[in-house]
Design brief:
The protein is mainly α. The protein has a domain of 88 residues. The radius of gyration is 60 Å and the shape is rod-shaped.
Length: 144
């Protein structure tokens, strides 16, 4: 049997302590790592949610800006079209009024000319009728 020297006991105790720590350390490290992994997963999820929220916010702002820009562009085009239509209507109305005036003057002249002819014809007809009546106004000889 061997005898153990007392001087080797502290070395053995130190060795036993180191070995005990080495044996338990992986289990402790695994528990610690699992907790840290869960914590890290939670942090990653939180970060991803933040990034998604920021991306949605940015997309919403961009969409709102583009919608506003499109609305202003549509408004400008509508306004431009309305002004163009108003100008064309104004121009057409002036042309129609001018043509109506021209037609009215022409109709007036034709009516005036026709009226003069009718009056002249009526005067001639009245004169002719008066001549016929004049001939008939003399007393007819009475038959005896």
């Amino acid at each position: 049997m061997r005898t153990i020297r007392l001087s080797s006991i502290p070395v053995l105790a130190a060795f036993a302590a180191v070995m005990t720590f080495a044996v338990w350390q992986p289990a402790y490290a695994l528990q610690s790592t699992a907790g840290q992994d869960i914590k890290q997963a939670g942090q990653d999820t939180k970060d991803a949610a933040k990034k998604t929220g920021h991306a949605v916010e940015k997309g919403t702002k961009t969409a709102a800006h583009d919608t506003k820009k499109g609305t202003v562009k549509a408004y400008d085009k509508s306004k431009e079209g309305t002004e163009k239509a108003a100008d064309k209507t104004k121009e057409g109305t002036k042309t129609a009024a001018h043509d109506t005036k021209k037609g009215t003057v022409k109709a007036y002249d034709k009516t005036k000319e026709g009226t003069k002819k009718v009056v002249h014809g009526t005067a001639k007809g009245t004169e002719k009728a008066a001549d016929k009546v004049e001939d008939k106004t003399e007393p007819k000889p009475t038959p005896q």
